[in-house]
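Board notes (copied after class):
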Amino acid sequence: MTLILTELSEFGIAMAADTASTVDSLNTRGTIESRAFNGLIKLLPVDKLEAGISYWGWSQLPPNEQIGCGVLMDSWLNEFLVRNRNRFDTIEELALLLESELRERVPELSDEELKRSQFGYGGVHLTGFVDYEDNKIPCFWHIHNGESQESPRKDLNPKIVNANYDCPPEKFLRKYLPMGGLMVRNGEYEPYARFFDKYLKKYLQELQREEGIYIPIPTLPFRAEFLRAQILFMSGLYAVGGDYINKEGVILKKARSIGNEVTVLTITAEEGITNYIVR
């Protein structure tokens, strides 16, 4: 699994992703357990467009339960960007190219698979700035299989990969900017969302109101580092957590499926990509 975060705000665009990969493997007891491996780069800059791209779910293409049966997704995505450099000049063109090639490599979901995972098993975040009413405004595409939460279209087949324009500039200005921005998170996000949405936001508001402490400092670099801190926090929890009880009643250690180094990318309307760090 993974955890990737993409935030569009008045300050610009901030993206963050962990570098862990979870694989089901046979253990000495003859049962299947999850193992976590590190080193996948899930967030890349698209220098030509001053944009950012990250992925979740698919650790390799074609997606396959057996590791090593496909090309690792970070290698494929990097090669895709290089190979198609002269075929796209806009974020939309890149999104549609991704849709086309991923449809060739990601098998169509069965009825049962779609029922189990309504919003799909993998996808790509693509974000950057586009010209809108004489200004550069952030936009967000989500290329994935399954149904779209943000831009459901009856003419799209949810069993295959679709390029969903979840947040065009007019939607960002009308809907999300008044709310403080758009946050998109994918991967193993439910434990993350449960804590950060239910408890941390309220706690940070209390700190600001009662103690005068601002977390994060309201600038793009600090917002990006705050995303990194959130991923590292979840990684730390997973390092000491368990999620399976064996026949003897012993809680077994949870695979550290969110973890290791965190990649961060920031983009502004004025300067384009301003920071890209893996650490």
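Comment from the instructor: The mean pLDDT is 89. The helical segments are 73-83, 91-105, 111-116, 169-176, 190-211, 220-239.
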